[in-house]
Automatic annotation (TrEMBL):
<keyword id="KW-0012">Acyltransferase</keyword>
<dbReference type="GO" id="GO:0004742">
    <property type="term" value="F:dihydrolipoyllysine-residue acetyltransferase activity"/>
</dbReference>
<keyword id="KW-0670">Pyruvate</keyword>
<comment type="similarity">
    <text>Belongs to the 2-oxoacid dehydrogenase family.</text>
</comment>
<dbReference type="InterPro" id="IPR001078">
    <property type="entry name" value="2-oxoacid_DH_actylTfrase"/>
</dbReference>
<dbReference type="Pfam" id="PF00198">
    <property type="entry name" value="2-oxoacid_dh"/>
</dbReference>
<dbReference type="InterPro" id="IPR004167">
    <property type="entry name" value="PSBD"/>
</dbReference>
<keyword id="KW-0808">Transferase</keyword>
<dbReference type="InterPro" id="IPR000089">
    <property type="entry name" value="Biotin_lipoyl"/>
</dbReference>
<dbReference type="GO" id="GO:0045254">
    <property type="term" value="C:pyruvate dehydrogenase complex"/>
</dbReference>
<feature type="domain" description="Lipoyl-binding">
    <location>
        <begin position="124"/>
        <end position="199"/>
    </location>
</feature>
<dbReference type="Pfam" id="PF02817">
    <property type="entry name" value="E3_binding"/>
</dbReference>
<dbReference type="InterPro" id="IPR006257">
    <property type="entry name" value="LAT1"/>
</dbReference>
<comment type="function">
    <text>The pyruvate dehydrogenase complex catalyzes the overall conversion of pyruvate to acetyl-CoA and CO(2). It contains multiple copies of three enzymatic components: pyruvate dehydrogenase (E1), dihydrolipoamide acetyltransferase (E2) and lipoamide dehydrogenase (E3).</text>
</comment>
<keyword id="KW-0450">Lipoyl</keyword>
<feature type="compositionally biased region" description="Basic and acidic residues">
    <location>
        <begin position="234"/>
        <end position="243"/>
    </location>
</feature>
<dbReference type="InterPro" id="IPR011053">
    <property type="entry name" value="Single_hybrid_motif"/>
</dbReference>
Length: 544
């Protein structure tokens, strides 16, 4: 019997996945354990494994297209098997009992008010039972490989889970402490049931559990009420009705046009009598003016009136465009930065730094350094040293508390084809310039070849974005959560500067600090930039 392959939920925050590439095609024979496709999630690119033997009868998602969690990806069964009914049921969301999932929610949801619990301030993540196959409704914990209190890294195996298809490994996608284990060995738990919680040591995971339980009880209580939105035709009809009430002229030989159309035509210099109306009884409305193109004769007449003469060439062109589906990376960038921009009150401080001595120091260093040191490497090292002197800048807003990080992990923005990645240079204050240079080059290469792992981009406490190499002199950057600050670095420009009362040539670089005003005040941000300026204008101080 054919089986539907659905998009599994790989992490608690995953809402959809993108099929990066199919490794098989319709009609191919597959075995349990074969890799069907590569899937881009909000965390990483992962492999989609088959849990069935048979023939790939149907592929429901094209490459580069997204599909929500539990959405139909493919169907595997016997060669020649009729899958029409199964495909229809899968697409309509019909379950074994024949009850539509939305209808079922409506029947079970009551009118009782359920208090919602805000657990956004809890620095922890729920680990839930993923759905590994279309028929899976629950899984059994065969054994736990970690216990409460253990430290876990992204990629660690937490437990072995028995499904209705096979015994599989439950992988961690978050770093932290295993705060809570909700299922004993040998016990079963339903799909999306809570298995464990991983997060910061001491985090209030009980609040997170209560919030999850409250969300489950509320069901579809928050579903939007029945409402029939107006169709495009109805909207158009309404618009025409409104337009028809705007009388622009009488029948006495004058042009019939709405007041707005007359005003637009006058502003554009059009002869409104030459515009064809599409409104009632040929009345000219706004869209007619917008879509009107003056004839060559009219333009020529205007030119002659001004005492000039020229021929207007006839230009023939074709309007065209390409539409590309938004990648998971771009969606995540948009979501995170929108949240940052509209939740964190940004303020900006810009400062000029004289880079004459930094240029000399870099030239001298590169005569002995095993790797070429860039100006960006100097900025990273100087920022790390300045953060050590101003630890309150190296912080994060957590809602009801502020975290002051004692370690310094510098995120370095790297532009790739799909968007922007921010790999992290860990403990940057303890590393030499040559070490930082080599590490940044390695991380940038991994970013461009899509080989970055979660540990490469997680844990930043401060971020640097440098557009100087593109000729940008000055810009502002959006704070990269969970940081409280980000430094935008412009290019080095040769200009006139004043030294000892004399105007002499010099090299200046502008930097702009974007800060979360909930955490960092203006005076603190200015003091940090003053320290950074001193370090870059006298680079030998960085090495002390």
């Amino acid at each position: 019997m054919a089986e539907v392959i659905r998009m599994p939920k790989m992490s608690d925050t995953m809402e959809e996945g993108v099929i990066a590439s199919w490794l098989v095609k319709e009609g191919d024979k597959v075995k349990s354990g074969d890799i069907l496709a590569e899937v881009e999630t909000d965390k990483a690119t992962m492999e989609l494994e088959s849990y069935e033997d048979g023939t790939l009868l149907h592929i429901g998602v094209k490459e580069k297209e997204s599909v929500p969690v539990d959405g139909v990806i493919a169907i595997i069964g016997e060669e020649g098997e009729d899958i029409g009914t199964l495909l229809k049921e899968a697409q309509n969301g019909i379950k074994d009992n024949g009850v539509d999932k939305k209808e079922e929610k409506k029947e079970t949801s009551g009118n009782e008010d359920i208090e919602e619990i805000d657990a956004s301030d809890v620095n922890a993540t729920l680990i839930t039972m993923p759905k590994m196959s279309d028929t899976m409704t629950e899984g059994t914990i065969a054994s736990w490989l970690k216990k409460e209190g253990d430290q876990v890294q992204a990629g660690d195996i937490l437990a072995e889970v028995e499904t209705d298809k096979a015994t599989m490994e439950l992988e961690a996608y978050e770093e932290g402490t295993l705060l809570y284990v909700g299922v004993k060995e040998g016990d079963a738990v339903a799909v999306d049931g809570v298995l464990a919680i991983v997060g910061e040591k001491g985090a209030d995971f009980e609040k997170l559990l209560k919030a999850h339980q409250s969300k489950q009880k509320s069901g579809v209580a928050g579903e939007e009420k029945d409402a029939t939105p107006a169709t495009p035709a109805e909207k158009s009809e309404k618009k025409d009705t409104i337009d028809s009430k705007v009388s622009g002229a009488t029948e006495g030989g004058r042009v019939k046009a709405s007041p707005l159309a007359k005003k637009m035509a006058e502003e554009k210099g059009y002869d409104i009598s030459k515009i064809k109306g599409s409104g009632d009884n040929g009345r000219i409305v706004k869209k007619d003016v917008e879509g009107y193109t003056p004839t060559t004769e009219a333009v020529q007449q205007i030119a002659e009136n001004k005492g000039t003469s020229f021929n207007i060439p006839q230009i023939v062109g074709e309007e065209s465009y390409d539409e590309v589906n938004v990648s998971q990376m771009r969606k995540t960038i948009g979501k995170r930065l929108s949240e940052s921009k509209f939740t964190a009150p940004h303020f900006y401080i810009t400062m000029e730094i004289n880079m004459d001595k930094a240029i000399e120091a870099r030239k001298s260093m590169n005569e002995f350094s095993p790797v070429k040191i860039s100006f960006n490497d100097l900025v990273i090292k100087a920022v790390a040293a300045a953060l050590r002197q101003h630890p309150k800048v190296n912080s994060s807003w957590l809602g009801d508390k502020i975290r002051y990080n004692k370690h310094i992990h510098i995120g370095v923005a790297v532009a790739v084809d799909e968007g922007l990645l921010v790999p992290v240079v860990r403990f940057a204050d303890n590393k030499s310039l040559s070490h930082i240079s080599a590490e940044v080059k390695q991380l940038a290469e991994k970013a461009h070849t899509k080989k970055l792992q979660p540990e490469d981009w997680e844990g930043n406490t401060f971020t640097i974005s440098n557009l100087g190499m593109f000729g940008v002199e000055e810009f502002t950057a959006i704070i990269n959560p969970p940081d409280a600050c980000i430094l935008a670095v412009g290019g080095i420009k040769e200009t006139a500067v004043v030294k000892n009362g004399q105007l002499v040539p010099g090299n200046v670089m502008k930097v702009t600090l974007s800060s979360d005003h909930r955490v960092v005040d203006g005076a603190l941000g200015a003091a940090f930039l003053q320290t950074l300026k001193g370090l870059l204008e006298n680079p030998v101080r960085i090495l002390v």
